[in-house]
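Quick entry, no commentary yet.
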Amino acid sequence: MIPGSDADVRAAYAARAAEYVSVIGSVELNDERDRELIARWGRTRSGHVIDAGCGPGHWTDLLHREGCDVEGFDLVAPFIDQARVRFPRVTFRVGSIDDLGDADGQADGILSWYSLIHADPERVPTMLAEFARCLRPGGSLLLGFFDGERVEPFPHRVSPAWFWPVDEMALRLVEAGFTVEEMHTRVDPGHRPHAAIVAQRTGSSLDL
């Protein structure tokens, strides 16, 4: 049981896009603590914000309502189609985390909410480096993922995914050019362990 390629993940989510929206595709269907964290983080951003792996766009819309100059993108075209219909005032596009398409240091913030969970651990440093490239020095990354005792795959309901110990993910962020500012973990009944990290881009946007 090994997580698949981008093509595998894209196909798996495209096949279940409508179901995904009905289960967690609005902010009201998600944990209030996540809503508060993302909204609070968004209020600290004064420049361009990227919602990397935005799914059907509910978190992108929340950031837009908090006053962010935000753009959402996702690998899965049916998600972007739905997002454009549901949130017509927000900008969305199809794209990949491996290449955000922004200039060096252009972004003030990146939200990556459970968008790395299907990536093989060997790819994660490259993805974090791409986040660092796009963020200005002092820019902020908010990363959400599944917490675990070790880096290991598990059978996610849509496509195989990975657990990450929060300390291990924090180390990878430091190696990519970030300073970790906040780490949040929790275990709720009936749900997998959750983690979130807020990290600030350090140094020059061109030092990677």
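second:
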Amino acid sequence: MNRMFFALAALSIVATGCDDPAKGKAKATTTEAVGSAAAPVTAASATTADYKFDNNGSKITWTGSKVTGKHDGGFGDFKGTVHLVDGAPEKSSVKVEIDAASINSDQEKLTGHLKSPDFFDVAKFTKVDFTSTEVKKGGEKGATHTITGNLSLHGVTKAITFPATIKVEGDQVSVESEFAVNRKDFGINYPGKQDDLIRDDVLVKLSVHAKK
């Protein structure tokens, strides 16, 4: 009886100590890619400008979790451009390119594992690319907009839709977003240890600042 009590107590401690960081967050939806993402048609009278990502003030980070805990990380090398039309995000587009090998985490051993064929396989799939196909006003959990675009990750290209708060201020465009994405949608299926399974959803956080 005492053994059963202590076993249940241990399970209770594990359960309360490893909450899913993606729980309650906006969840990205993935569908089949929309062919080649075409650039939006721009009227001759429209005012257009390109804003380049400022890597000193921009971050692309993630939080993954398993039964016993979580890990934080990000990407150290990425670039992108916001093509702004008439100062209106919903008329505009964005392109992002990430060096997959620049992935990092809070543990050196884990970083090496993430680069291996079990996860990102960075030797084979060197880039992560995103090209928007649509930006709509309004978004989940108070976001100003909803962005849809083609994401190429781990050799898989799918359309992904997620909420974002976009601000245009002077010579800067900022994009803030937080959403969960299912890693298995992009063929990253490594389960983890049998007694310490890795959750499917990964929390992604974007804090991007682009300058004219």
